[in-house]
Design goal:
This protein is of the alpha+beta class and 623 residues long. The chain has 12 helices and 21 strands. The strands form 3 sheets. Strands 1, 2, 3, 4, 5, 6, 7, 8, 9, 10, 11 and 12 form a 12-stranded mixed beta sheet that branches. Strands 16-17-18-15-19 form a 5-stranded parallel beta sheet, with helices on both faces. A 4-stranded antiparallel beta sheet has the order 14-13-21-20.
Length: 623
Amino acid sequence: MTAELVRGQNHPLPDTRLELRVSAGHPVVAGATLGDEGGRVAGAEWIAHPGAPVRPGIEVAVQAAAEHRIAVDLAALPDTVHRLSLLLALPPGGPGPARFGTAAAPFVAVADPSGAPVATYTITGLDRESAVVALELYRRQGAWKVRAVGQGYEGGLADLLADQGAPAAADLAAAVLDAAAPAAAPVPPLVPETAPADPSSTGAISYAHPGRRPAAPNAGPGAVPPSDPPAAPPPGPQAPPPAESRPAPVAGDASGWSMDERLYNQVWGMFEDLARTVAAYRSARDFADHRLDRAIDQVLADPATRVGAAGDAARAAARATHEELMGRAQEVLDRDLAQLTAESEVVEPALPAAYARWDNPVWHAYRSPEELPMAVRLGDLHVPERSTLRIPFLVRLPLERGLWVDSGPGRTSAAGLLDEAELRRLALDSAVAHTARLLAAHPAGALTVHVIDPAGGGAAAFAPLVETGVLAAPPAQGAAGVTDVLAQLTERVDLLQMAVRGDASEDLPPGFDPARQLLVVHDFPHGFDDRAVTRLRYLADEGPSVGVHLLMVADRADAAAYGPVLDPLWRSLLRLTPVPDDHLADPWVGHAWTYEPPTVPPGSAVLWQVLGQVGEARRRKSG
């Protein structure tokens, strides 16, 4: 679980290989100092900065940037180093802010080797400071911890380095900032000369980014393209480049071994960019409001300025500053959202079927895949600041947890306009659409689907699955049907777990179905006795590890009689809704995403066509 730190708070680090992430919303210089037990820096050789980016155990960027990712290997640090401090400084003379108090609060995170954030810290409370110690990694009794520092310096980087004991701090600070300044000399174009000048003229999608060098042929799946600095304008105040002069977004513009992986990583990058953009905007907005309140309070606290011309002038100045800060935050937000929107407009048409919306033409050419994709799209995500910008909600395959389509009343206005029967119908339709997507994403015969419909109330909704022949058997009805299906799948999980523990996968019974299993449960808990409920919980907990997955369509209130017994079941499932709902919390940036389910266009037969292809491929494989 990610720890959200406040100033002065510390948190243990789970690994010595880490990534420090910085998101400031404007260019900052990132560096690090390596200190002894007292935090003292012995000399310039113990500072990683743009002029000397590589030091033992750490590598920083060679330029100022709005975002940084800094690799750290604490095990590679010299034994004399007990403290690594992450520094942020504003580059002088540029178009960005001159002090942190006039910009969005910087956000820093510490991530483990898998990329999961371990701790985050939003640096608030800065005013006239132009340099700050964001956080420090320190060694205590042989273990490493992270501490949120947030110590700013009005005297800039020189004062910061002097405070850490660095010799000739002023000269060193000047050298660091000079090294971070953009170079005036242009660099050669990075686009292969064989790339078409106008991809749109051929009707094909261009995958060659005009400002990024292609990855090396031997790069692995997680490799990133070389980070050579792009051509930059001469130093000094610069107007933002016109939109038409910026590099056009390109589909597949991400690291990866295949186009599937590159597009997945690009969508994930868009999700992270939107999260950080909105978090920075909201932080800047909150800061502007806080600053206005503080300025007004100061005016009111001083009897000399409480009334009269001086007080009016102070209040007017405070409001003008507030409007300026809000305007600047909105300008940055609009710019970043416009860039993300342009990227979305290019990426969306290029997505493969597993990542595409139902209205994407790629579905009309659908054929059963040869291998499992990295993920499947289960809806869209958006934020209130730009509800028209939709980020695909991609869930990794194979599923690591079950799914739950909540048919109960939601908290949003969309749910409030629908009666109970309509919500339940939409929930079941959503579950069928999710099932169709999962079937379409798997190779022929690689996913076997079972359906439990105790009262038979979902016959109309399940018709596409039944009539196209993609189910293992007709939907199970009545208590006896529920018992039979659950017993069959529970026995399968037991058998596979024993085979895995005994390393005897080759000794499974003849005719054993090697395909993954998906159980769709409708109208829970109707038709379930206590034993069936226990088996269902067992499948939800133990099934995913051996390829048995659960998709429930249920209203939690219907099972209220079981009390807290079923709480672990609901918590183990990924909750989806049949109507837009803002229930997906993002602990990294502290806001909720609005989830929107995938909907088949009205009157479209695409779902039937896709299931028809799945059924035909299944019959060809079995025949």
